[in-house]
Amino acid sequence: MKLTCTDETGGCLGDCCSGFSLSKAVQLTIMSDMAEDGAIIRNMLIPLEDGNFTCKHWHDNRCTIYAWRPQMCRDFPEKGNPCGAPGCKEPNH
Fold it and tell me: What is the pTM of this model?
C-alpha cells in the first residue's frame, strides 16, 4: 500500500501520530484490555487539550519506535478510517 503522505523513500511522514482522535468505542476497547497491545497503547497515549491524542514516542517529526510499533499503529490507516494528514488518501484494500 502506497500512501500519498510519504517521504521520497516511501516512508510514512507520521502526520497522523502527531495528533489523532480515537472514537469512544476504540478508547473503551483499549482501556478494557480487549485490544491487542492494549496496555502498551494506553501507556503511549498523551491526551491533548482539544480532545485528541498524541503519542509519547513521536519526537522530532518521527516515530522513535517505528520498527517495534504496536499492531494498532501498523494497521493504521485502514479503509474507512484514513489518515487525517493533508493530502493523504484512504488506502485501497
Answer: 0.64
